[in-house]
Q: What sequence folds into this?
């Protein structure tokens, strides 16, 4: 069994998992050992400090960023994407920044950048449509009748599933509902749904409506797991404890893989095992996890999952979504809602109205696939297939660790200097508990800082009143991006304070 | 061809040919009709492979563009199909498009209903291919009290029959049924007035007559009379009011009507393709398209009848039975032709000669001359090529027989 988490140690029953670094201590790193091997006990901070030492500079110097980019084995993948120029971003203020520079794009967790090949592949299919019309269904590189299936191998690789366990179709929430209609079968005893509090709205509304569909009371049947008082993220032990306590009455556990707000990466295998041990079915919304962290859905025994493809999978707004059902269910779990695309391919076009349902998730497909969306996703998955999730994760751990290091260096709280702005990082500090994203909670109102950031070509996400979500993505972000962000953040905060002061001064006349 | 005019296409064709001094079967007539076609310029808006009325007339707030047709059909049925012990049946046409058939079966099973007992499939009369409106109305009258939902296609995919949507709707509603239509073959093909006809719900795909590409963005409609009473069964964030949707407070503010049925954010690439297509439609009207279509399909019918009517004195002569109703108000563009010979090799010969059409074994072809981009010359050429195809096909059959005997 592959162990994807960098710091896990062999577990003995009854022993809490502790960070390896406190057990094994730090290890000296070679200059060329800049790869963050997820199983390595070395923390990013150590690598950064030791590398800087060897370079004869400080960890906060640009020199380190340039060096790390130089050594980055994945740096060539940035060329596979269109990175917007600062001058093309609508909020840019050209008096403040050089418009010809690439923007600092840290919002791939909301909308991924466009792979350059998208246009090429769209042209291929538009050309085929123009030249051959209906014949495109069964001819060419991507026969439209089989278009969704031509991407399955690449997609399966990214989620750790077998080809027959996944389908590409619809949007995430549609897929979530299609899965829940088959997996959520409440009984008088076992009728609850467990999910995280502050789940993404679509998941929340979906679960509410699923409960109501069965005539269940949302208050009683929807178990929302809150963090402890004063904490932002969920402790795995608390999740497991609720499962242990209430599991007998829980029908489905539906968690995000990575929490959209806090960036927390949940312990998918442990939650799955614990839930199944209590007789629950366990599913995950992987919108923020796929293409971000390593997933092994099949090996982990996850019952079902769904994801969208326009975030870390860079397939464009509203891109083709995914769905997964473990093959152990392929003969027992049937789709509740059926359409012609769930009919076996061999006889599907005979139109005899005698259903021959495909096994597993394939039987859940309803409509024929949208070829234009397949093109965009194809372009993106091809970039992923030039590397591995393991390699991406290695870079990501160091990249996000670098961001964290600089944030802590410049924005730690200084109780002796209450005027100094500081940042609390809401995202867990443990590498195995997070993906690319860090959620930063500022000690000052964030709206005008965010505006100043945007004027200077930074693309990130703001959550009022105080938070920014920053997601440096290994496929196309660089260490220099992170360094630039920190510099620009400093200017933005200064500008923001000046504006606030000016407002105060002008207000007093 | 004013659809409300009492003049039949055949009359127009014969009279025009007379004035031109040619026969109705001559290419000259086709060229003349194309010359006079007010919509011929629209063909230029399309890639034709070598060899404002915005449809379907509803209020903006009554429609949504999302998902695929069958997904939308299910989303609608989950709200409209609420069986009770007394009223639990679904009425649809026999030989409905497979997706509709499977969808209705699964909707019934979802409610624990027996498909045999609860799915009323309306068969044509013995020896007939299409449904008589009087028979549809009669079944609604007889069984309507136990029918929860009537779900018909607008235009039947196989026969090309255009159903009398307003009459079926009125009759069904009079018996307390909810009435919906799968408009896959109707939208962009015939004139639709869903709102005025009081149709309860409808859905359609956009890759057929709406030309938006394989798997294009589908549509859904709910009459505004239901906007406060019919709620979506399945909810997602895109059904939340736009103003507060991105606050992420997990307190649902559901949009009214069909908009609340939206689940996921829209796929921009599919919007682009549909946009391009709808823009062409907005350069004309469904009325004008229908006028051309009636004459164009009438022209096809005329030539088929001229060359392929049954001749009892000449049993060797191949003939065609047109399965599609002959009344203009009972059909759209498409004619379904049933041949007196096996169609597979004829179809192969047609394809070899650059004709793209649909074959339904063992005997039928579906031919759909579309007003937006097909011409009268297309129809004339088709008839010529059909002749060659049939001849070639017979020769091949003969050769096979001959060679088989050695």
A:
């Amino acid at each position: 069994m592959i162990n994807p988490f960098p710091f896990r140690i062999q577990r003995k029953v009854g022993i809490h998992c502790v960070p390896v670094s406190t057990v094994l201590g730090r290890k000296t790193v070679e200059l060329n050992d800049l790869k963050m091997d997820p199983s390595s006990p070395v923390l990013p901070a150590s690598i950064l400090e030791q590398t800087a030492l060897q370079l004869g500079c400080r960890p906060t110097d640009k020199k380190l960023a340039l060096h790390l980019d130089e050594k980055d084995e994945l740096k060539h993948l940035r060329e596979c994407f269109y990175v917007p120029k600062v001058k093309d971003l609508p909020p840019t203020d050209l008096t403040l920044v050089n418009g010809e520079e690439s923007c600092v794009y840290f919002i791939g967790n909301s909308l991924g950048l466009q792979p350059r090949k998208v246009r090429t592949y769209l042209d291929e299919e538009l050309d085929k449509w123009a030249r051959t019309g209906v014949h495109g269904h069964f001819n060419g590189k991507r026969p439209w009748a089989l278009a969704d299936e031509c991407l399955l191998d690449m997609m399966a690789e990214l989620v750790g599933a077998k080809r027959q366990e996944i389908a590409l179709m619809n949007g995430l929430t549609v897929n979530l509902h299609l899965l829940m209609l088959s997996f959520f079968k409440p009984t008088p005893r076992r009728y609850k749904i467990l999910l995280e509090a502050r789940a993404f709205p679509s998941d929340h509304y979906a679960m509410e409506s699923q409960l109501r569909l069965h005539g269940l009371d949302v208050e009683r049947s929807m178990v929302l797991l809150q963090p402890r008082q004063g904490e932002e993220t969920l402790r795995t032990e608390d999740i497991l404890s609720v499962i242990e306590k209430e599991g007998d009455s829980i029908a489905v556990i539906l968690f995000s893989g990575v929490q959209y707000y806090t960036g927390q990466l949940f312990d998918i295998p442990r939650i799955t095992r614990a839930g199944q041990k209590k007789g629950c079915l366990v599913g995950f919304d992987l919108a923020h996890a796929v293409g971000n962290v390593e997933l092994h859905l099949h090996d982990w025994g996850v019952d079902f999952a769904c994801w969208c493809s326009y975030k870390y999978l860079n397939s464009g707004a509203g891109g083709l979504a995914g769905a997964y059902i473990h093959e152990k269910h392929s003969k027992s779990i049937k789709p509740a809602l059926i359409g012609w695309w769930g009919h076996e391919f061999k006889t599907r076009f005979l139109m005899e109205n005698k259903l021959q349902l495909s096994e597993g998730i394939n039987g859940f497909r309803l409509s024929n696939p949208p070829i234009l969306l397949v093109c965009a996703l194809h372009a993106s998955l091809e970039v992923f297939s030039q590397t591995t999730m393991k390699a991406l994760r290695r870079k990501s751990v160091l990249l996000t660790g670098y961001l964290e290091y600089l944030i802590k260096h410049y924005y730690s709280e200084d109780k002796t200097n209450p005027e100094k702005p500081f940042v609390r990082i809401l995202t867990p500090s443990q590498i195995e508990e997070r993906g690319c994203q860090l959620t930063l909670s500022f000690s000052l109102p964030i709206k005008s800082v965010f505006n100043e950031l945007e004027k200077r070509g930074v693309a990130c996400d703001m959550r009022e009143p105080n938070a920014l979500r920053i997601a440096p993505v290994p496929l196309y972000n660089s260490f220099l991006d992170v360094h630039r962000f920190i510099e620009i953040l400093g200017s933005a905060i200064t500008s923001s304070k000046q504006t606030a002061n000016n407002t105060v001064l002008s207000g007093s006349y | 061809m004013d659809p409300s005019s009492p003049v039949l296409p055949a009359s127009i064709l014969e009279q025009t040919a007379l004035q031109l001094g040619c026969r109705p079967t001559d290419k000259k007539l086709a060229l003349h009709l194309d010359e006079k076609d007010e919509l011929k310029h629209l063909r230029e808006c399309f890639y034709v492979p070598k060899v404002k009325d915005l449809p379907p007339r509803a209020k903006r707030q009554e429609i949504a563009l999302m998902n695929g047709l069958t997904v939308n059909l299910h989303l609608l049925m989950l709200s409209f199909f609420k069986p009770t012990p007394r009223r639990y049946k679904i009425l649809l046409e026999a030989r409905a498009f497979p997706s509709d058939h499977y969808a209705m079966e699964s909707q019934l099973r979802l409610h624990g209903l027996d498909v045999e007992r609860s799915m009323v499939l309306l068969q044509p009369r013995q020896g007939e291919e299409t449904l008589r409106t009087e028979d549809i109305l009669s079944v609604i009258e007889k069984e309507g009290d136990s029918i929860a939902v009537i779900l018909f296609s607008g235009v039947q995919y196989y026969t090309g029959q255009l159903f009398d949507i307003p009459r079926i709707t009125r009759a069904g509603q009079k018996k307390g049924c909810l009435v919906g239509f799968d408009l896959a073959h109707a939208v962009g093909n015939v004139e639709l007035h869903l709102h005025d006809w009081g149709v309860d719900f409808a859905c359609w795909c956009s890759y057929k007559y709406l030309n938006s590409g394989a798997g294009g963005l589908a549509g859904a409609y709910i009459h505004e009379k239901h906007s406060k009473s019919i709620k979506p069964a399945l909810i997602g964030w895109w059904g939340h009011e736009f103003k507060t949707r991105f606050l992420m407070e997990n307190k649902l503010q559901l949009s009214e009507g069909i908009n609340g049925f939206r689940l996921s954010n829209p796929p921009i690439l599919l919007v682009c393709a549909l946009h391009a297509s709808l823009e062409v439609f907005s350069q004309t009207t469904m009325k004008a398209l229908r006028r051309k279509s009636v004459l164009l399909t009438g022209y096809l019918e005329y030539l088929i009848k001229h060359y392929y009517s049954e001749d009892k004195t000449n049993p060797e002569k191949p003939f065609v039975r047109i399965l599609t109703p002959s009344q203009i108000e009972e059909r759209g563009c498409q004619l379904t032709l049933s041949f007196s010979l096996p169609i597979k090799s004829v179809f192969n010969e047609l394809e070899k000669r650059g004709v793209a059409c649909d074959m339904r074994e063992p005997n039928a072809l579906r031919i759909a001359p579309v007003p937006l981009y097909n011409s009268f010359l297309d129809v004339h050429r088709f008839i010529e090529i059909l002749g060659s195809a049939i001849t070639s096909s017979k020769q091949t059959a003969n050769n096979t027989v001959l060679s088989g005997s050695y």
Summary: Residues 1-33 of chain A have pLDDT under 50 and may be disordered. Chain A touches chain B through 69 residues (CB under 8 Å). The radius of gyration of chain A is 24 Å. The longest strand of chain A covers residues 250-256.
